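Translate sequence into structure tokens.
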Amino acid sequence: MNWRYLAWGGVAVAALVAILGGGWLLTLPAASTYKRPPPIAQEEHDASIAALKPPKRQRPLIAIVGINEMTETTDYLMPYGILKRADVADVVTLATERGAVTLFPVLKVEPDATIAAFDAAHPDGADYVIVPAMSRDDDPTVMQWIRRQADNGAVIISVCAGAKVLASAGLLDGRRATTHWFYLKNLRDNHPQIHYVANRRIVIDRAVATTTGISASLPMSLTLIEAIAGRAKAETIAREIGVDDWDARHDSSAFKFTRPFALTAIRNALALWNRERLGLKLTPGVDEVSLALVADSWSRTYRSHAVTFAATDGVQITRNGLRIYPQQVATDWPAARLLPPVGTTPPAQALDQALDEIETRYGRSTVDFVAMQLEYPRPPAARNE
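Result follows.
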């Protein structure tokens, strides 16, 4: 008889969990709608550009730092690809230790140097340090290095949840700042001296800049190009990558943990029988921005994971010289699970194209789920509104 008691006990526990879970879901807000906010005042924009002017060199030195264990894909690759394309600064990728940097949720890259090698080559430090989101907010090597760079006069810029790394390093205390919506409460609870600024993609306060969401590295990079080389240069690069405007406007209220977001996460995560490994072919000269956006988007559905492949296990050299390792050695991939080639559209449009394809494959709720993770304000036309 014991097995019957155990079985009924299991049913009771499952029912209790379902009831409690259902109650929690009912407490969440309904779907939110992005409303395009008014333009940024010219005075505010001019002040931001002035605050980002190169602090040291006529041709600035920009360092993008990550930890080898896990650093966010788009945060690391998008600023690199856009800034290298612009050719207005010397841009290097760094890691805390020797060896490859594993990027989340997909890709693995070989950085240009370690932070120790960078310090030996540039004892006066960088002009700008870009800090992506990392799996650890309190890595002591990263925090000490960022503090030294700030003390040497570098402008420190975080992308997305990279703000948590800056906060752990003490660089946001008493400053105005922002971050990805998902981590905002945690940031404010653990660092109450931070002055949160809503409705801005980029917030700059005394040589420290923070940004919202993963997709904010695109407007941040263009704003930095404008500060270094002027508006005309930034407009040229914007056209090349498929962007119409890039000011700091944002509707923060549209990005939150909603009931549809939670339901989609639960439903997709529980669909264990319906997982897909989608092949993304690595080719020489691939654009870093397009690759990052496509691979990142498809790996956030909870239904699929992008897998980069190439005919050999050697590194593939990207458009701007970054070395990327394929995750799998293969000459081809089953056609039904092969993602379209990267690089056939401008980089920014590659994201919209990937989101359209995700919607076609998995439905509206999943594409909204992915866009919410990226904190990406999809154009209304893309949502069939």
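Note: The mean pLDDT is 90.
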